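Quick one: structure tokens for this chain, please?
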Amino acid sequence: MGALDAVAGRVAGGATVTFRPSGSSMVPLIRSRQQVVVAPVDPSKLAVGDIVLARVAGTVYLHLVSSVDPARKRVQISNNRGRVNGWTGHDRVFGICVAVDDVARPGAAGKTVAADGNRTAP
């Protein structure tokens, strides 16, 4: 089980989670050990450039949405260095990064969902 699996479980359960991921694949958007806040997301609202917590081919990533396919209800996940992780279904997108080091992420507002599954206000 990877380091992000436990976080994904909490977010999938409806929690907004604050944590410090490690790694350099998202620099300069997220640097290793910066504090991030991830909230449950409505995957149908995702756009290219959103940072999401998603499972792709068995691994959980905090990476970018690089393409969307609304007809097939899936998104393509990539890091910020050009590596494509692959496509994943909306059911495997757990959350959206809403802040990095207390700075709100552009475009995340209005895409989160409350614990009861309802979309939150923008």
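Residues 4 and 104 are 21 Å apart (CA to CA).
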